[in-house]
Amino acid sequence: MLPVAAPEKSKLRHPEKAHRPDNLTTARRPDWIRVKAPTSKGYHDTKEIVKNLKLHTVCEEAGCPNIGECWTQKHATFMIMGDTCTRACSFCNVKTGKPEALDALEPLRVATGTMELGLKHVVITSVDRDDLADGGAAHFAEVILKTRAKNPNTTIEILTPDFKHKPGAVATVARARPDVFNHNLETVPRLYLTIRPGARYFTSLRLLQEAKEIDPTIFTKSGVMVGLGETKEEVLQVMDDLRAADVDFLTIGQYLQPTPKHAAVDRYVTPEEFAEYEKFARAKGFLMVSATPLTRSSYHAGDDFQKLRAAREAQLRRT
Fold first, then answer.
1. Rounded mean pLDDT of 204-224?
2. Which of 91, 107, 113, 304 is 20 to 30 A from 282, comparing alpha carbons?
3. Are 289 and 249 in contact (CB under 8 A)?
């Protein structure tokens, strides 16, 4: 009798974190960030379109808590350049490893997905691609151009990696003229070494400033997570830094731990504290602020874009 081969072990999603001790979040998740499991027809229709076009979404890969609500309305956020990231941030649930080669047909598939979902405002993000000479900037630009060609009435919002050590990358993407150029700072400078070790705070800040310098008509946007151990004073300083870089739109949301191997939740920030952060941010001059426990970069992005545009028009009328 031939020996029976042992079943192959399932591939770890986060092999780089496998031998880390578990970070146990001791605080009980409050009622204000509990969401219902997705079951609607719209959710399943969106899932089918994404699957048929062989697209990745950050909604699935990052385990977004708002996926049921957004996909019910056929609002999906596309994630380009594969599903594998070259970074290993301690907050993120996207896979880490060696990515595959870029797919030359992906820009057209994203454009088609935007059309089939009927998106009036599309959000396109990506994994980090430190393995590419330009960080994937040219591919990002091609996705923007193809999407706009096929969907001329759709506004385009991008959420890019930091393009660290990739000179010219920000210009390549900005010159494709997205309507919103988003890059998240994610957390306060003091926590970068533990939360975002592959990134540098001032590199990210400079990216946002550079995008605005290249094209002042582009809306710039950034987001931070709270509940990681930051102080109120540190969050307010980040707001000041973003305004100094002329960033228009700020999002603030609650960090949620994807697995025990990721950074633990330090605390759950109350809705009242989020409302206070929003007041501070508006007082500092942001055109648009979204600050709630469930806020994510692409959550209600289409509606928020309309408010953002209206706020700029009102500002211009006053000057």
1. 97
2. 91
3. yes
pLDDT tens-place string over residues 53-86: 898 887 776 677 767 677 777 778 899 999 999 9
Q: Which residues pair with 257 in a beta bridge?
A: none
The pTM score is 0.91
Rounded to a whole number of angstroms, the distance between the first and last alpha carbons of the chain is: 86
Nearest alpha-carbon partner for 173 in 239, 116, 220:
220
Whose tokens are 């030359």? That residue is: 104
What's the CA gap between 154 and 174, in Å, rounded?
A: 17
Residue 275's pLDDT band (boundaries 50, 70, 90)?
Answer: very high
